Amino acid sequence: MNSARRQSKGKTKRKQRQPQPKSDTRNESFFDSNPKRQRRKPTNGDNEVIDSDEESGGGSENELIPEKEQEGEVEEPETAAEKRLRIAREYVEKIKAITKQQKEDEEESDEEGEEDEEEGKWDSRAAEFLQKEQLESSGRARRLLASRLQKPEATDEFRLIQRHRESVVAVAITEDDSRGFSVSKGGDIIHWDVESGKREKYSWPSEDVLLSHGARGPQNKSKKRSNHVLGMAISSDGRYLATGGMDRHVHLWDTRTRAHIQAFQGHKGPVSGVTFRQGTPQLFSTSFDRTIKLWNAEDRCHIDTLHGHECEVLTVDCLRKERLLTVGRDRTARLWKVPEESQLVFRSSMASLECGCFINNEEFLSGSDDGSLELWSILRKKPRFIVKNAHPMPMEDTTIVPNGHSKVASDCNGIDGGLKINACSSAESWVSSVAVCRGSDMAASGAGNGVVRLWTVESEAATIQPLYNLPLVGYVNSLAIAKSGRFVVAGVGKEPRLGRWGSNSGAVNGVCLHPLKFKHN
């Protein structure tokens, strides 16, 4: 019995040890990289193996692939570098066409024999044009617009292009001078077209949406969140719009969809001003809490906080360099070097500074609540030039002030022999806004005395000379000059930007535009 069991176990083990036959994977269609079903097609008694692709009436795989892909000419998506190169080439061709058109316009009166020039000359003219444009945009070259500005005619006046329910506190223009933005104390944000005047209004989101976008809940839940806006700025590419106001937040908007996309929190006081660094998504904000905060609009994050002002910070301005200009009620204007985290302090010995803006990387303007307009250089701690009584209040029952009253004051009044003026003690004479046409020698200032004044800024002579007065009733809380210099935009209201200590019932709350005309070179 035992021997029989051993024999049977041995037989089973031998059966298990027998090697299994290996399958030839080369003949299996499953392992074939490009399997094709095959079938036999009888032809005249001979059996011929053909591919399924050769079947009559059967669709082949290549028929479904476009011809370009079969030939290997697949269109690949354009990379970022290729797109930049294509745009640059199109821009150069556009500049060549502009220079050629200018040359043809200049030679219209010449003989017809000289029609074309060599291609190299057009390239050199286009290169000069591009170099000049680059120097002007970077602030290293200045356009002399003030000397070519024509005197406004009697029919030229400020034209109301947009109305607001409350006083306008800020206006801004895009880089191409085609669109404008304005905000009022009531929180109305309007996007309008310069030529047609067509307007689009932004809508504030609900409280739940604001909280989801990063906003902090109100301290007093029984009160509604304030939409009172104090400052506004538009990015260089025109994509982002930033606003700040009494709710202590910096709000970021998408201009393409007019949608609210982010609420930056961190300020402990009302946000008084915002600005973008030119050509970048860097955003700067100032507040009554005496701080300046740096944000990134693309990443939507906080970068840094700057301290130094001893009182409320009112306005902020920035060019292409990482340098900030801030003006505060501590009678100082401060130039911040952001990478070095350092600051230069410029003190005004006369009165509190209300506004300021860059002329270029080396100079800036400021306006005071005593009616003075100051020209500063970053190399000096004191103003290079001061215009006293820049916006005097005319009075009917006053005598003519002689020339000896003040050399600067009599010059800035723009009338030989004197002018009927009132002392700059009221809120109407405060210089509440200043603006500069970027890369030029033309500036503008506004107050509540009923005029917007245009100025020539002479850097070499270190003087500010008056050009023309543009009548406008109301408090001019914000000014913007088109990059081309074709017009000036003023945000006007019945009340000042930062308070209600003055009122002008005859003013209209809105945005006004005044065209500017220049003589040809």
Considering the chains and any ligands shown, give keywords for the structure:
521 residues, Methylamine Dehydrogenase, Chain H, 4-stranded antiparallel sheet, 34% strand, globular
What's a quick, concise take on this entry?
This protein has helices at residues 2-17, 67-70, 80-106, 119-138, 207-212, 407-413; strands at residues 38-43, 46-51, 159-163, 168-173, 179-184, 189-193, 199-202, 229-234, 240-245, 250-254, 259-264, 271-276, 282-287, 291-296, 301-307, 313-318, 323-328, 332-337, 342-347, 353-358, 363-368, 373-377, 385-387, 433-436, 442-446, 451-458, 463-471, 475-481, 487-493, 510-515.
Structure description:
- The protein is α+β, with helices and mostly antiparallel strands.
- It has a domain at 158-515: Methylamine Dehydrogenase, Chain H, CATH 2.130.10.
- The protein contains 6 helices and 30 strands.
- Strands 3-30-29-28 form a 4-stranded antiparallel beta sheet, with no helix packed on it. The protein has a 4-stranded antiparallel beta sheet with strand order 4-5-6-7, with no helix packed on it.
- Mean pLDDT is 78; it is low at 21-31, 33-38, 41-65, 111-116 and 396-425.
